[in-house]
Design goal:
Length: 386
């Protein structure tokens, strides 16, 4: 068998060594990748088949390889990236269907391969959704998010998951006994925001404008406030804006029924000389507005990933003669994962602010149909066992 790379990705051209009786294309794909002895158990897992095609199925458990552990998942969270992938049907770097789905999870170690050290059954853990190689130019330069061989993990919407060796070594963390699983499951998205905020090097007393009131924008509000900044938030959804206020935004710009971000902010905010703009919308128009809304000498983080193939128009005179600093933070490093878990365990980021819904695994396909149709829940906790 080939070396495990992206979990859930079938490797074309690889000959099956062992077949399990298959009833679904996913099980066939699984049989091509793994030897699945008959004495292994089965689990319920969400399988993404393609664009807006999601099903919950009973699949065979994968056997563990040396260095791996199995985690019984106690909490999985929905995420904007999963929604994007669901709508698009794939993610070039993260997953190719048919595949298991979901990447924000926490749980309990339920099996340890005899050749895996440092872990025991019963350990309460959170796993990141990726692990860098640690050896390439980018890893050596502390830019592990650009690792040329980043290993992604998917399969959070399932009763259990196998954590590959590299992830066990680099991005699997033990939880404090009192840390709730759904709080720990916020570690990964929060780590991305911690990365984005730390790249900006916020200074206490600065004014920060956050564009976008999704989970990422709301986490940015909380972290900027925690850094001692005054925060303005422009976004949509009454509930989300109210939450933004609770998290520390002192100015709210309601974008309901409006498209022009720059005009809306200028109309509703008396002083728009923001030191920093954190863009968490993921639209070229929002990237362009960010540059126009930051002060001379200010910093912008183009945090929201736009659809691939899109471009932006920036006023070169403005960017140059205002000496702007532009960041485009992406993903996280193992350091940011640890820092994010610390923020959660120290109570600085509270799960109950971000996790505002709950649904059983069996209802996941329906939930994603609703999310695609405009359900504005911040994050929904998926219950893996009825
Ligand atoms: Zn996520
Ligand atoms: Zn690397």
């Amino acid at each position: 068998m080939g070396k495990l790379r992206t979990i859930g990705r079938t490797q074309p051209g690889q000959l099956p060594r062992y077949f399990v009786p298959s009833t679904t294309p996913y099980q066939l794909a699984l049989a091509v990748r793994f030897r699945v002895p008959e004495d292994l158990g089965r689990l319920k897992a969400a399988i993404l088949y393609g664009r807006e095609q999601l099903a919950v199925e009973d699949i065979p458990e994968q056997p563990l390889a040396p260095g791996e552990v199995r985690v019984r998942i106690e909490a999985a969270l929905t995420c904007g990236t999963d929604l994007k992938v669901y709508r698009r049907g794939y993610h070039a770097r993260m997953l190719i269907p048919p595949c298991v789905f979901g990447h924000e999870l926490a749980g309990v170690v339920s099996e340890v391969h005899p050749k895996t050290s440092g872990w025991e059954i019963g350990a309460r853990v959170v796993a990141a959704n990726s692990a860098p190689c640690g050896e390439c130019t980018w890893c050596r330069g502390n830019q592990e998010y650009l690792c040329s061989d980043l290993l992604f993990l998917n399969g959070a919407y399932a009763e259990s998951i196998v954590i590959p060796k590299r992830l066990v070594e680099k991005n699997l963390h033990r939880l404090r006994p009192e840390t709730p699983f759904h709080a720990a499951a916020l570690t990964e998205p929060l780590a991305c925001v911690v990365q984005g905020i730390s790249d900006l090097k916020l200074v206490s007393g600065e004014s920060v404008l956050v564009l976008g009131s999704g989970p990422i924008g709301l986490m940015a509000v909380a972290l900027a406030k925690h850094a001692g900044c005054s925060v303005a938030l422009a976004g949509r959804g009454e509930g989300r804006l109210a939450l933004g206020q609770r998290l520390g935004a002192s100015i709210l710009v309601d974008m309901a029924g409006r498209e022009d971000l720059e005009a809306a902010v200028r109309e509703q905010v008396p002083d728009t000389r923001f030191d920093v703009v954190f863009e968490a919308v993921g639209k070229p128009s929002a990237w362009e507005a960010s540059v126009r809304l930051v002060r001379r000498g200010g910093r912008v983080n183009f945090f929201g990933g736009c659809p691939s193939g899109t471009t932006v128009n920036l006023d070169t005179t403005l960017v140059h003669y205002s000496a702007l600093t532009l960041f485009a933070s992406f993903h996280h490093t193992p350091t940011m994962i640890r820092r994010a878990l610390g923020l959660i365990e120290d109570g600085i980021i509270r799960a109950d602010d971000f996790v505002d819904g709950e649904a059983p695994l069996s209802k996941l396909p329906e939930l994603f149909r609703q999310l695609a149709g405009g359900n504005r829940a911040v994050k929904t906790r998926i219950r893996l066992r009825e």
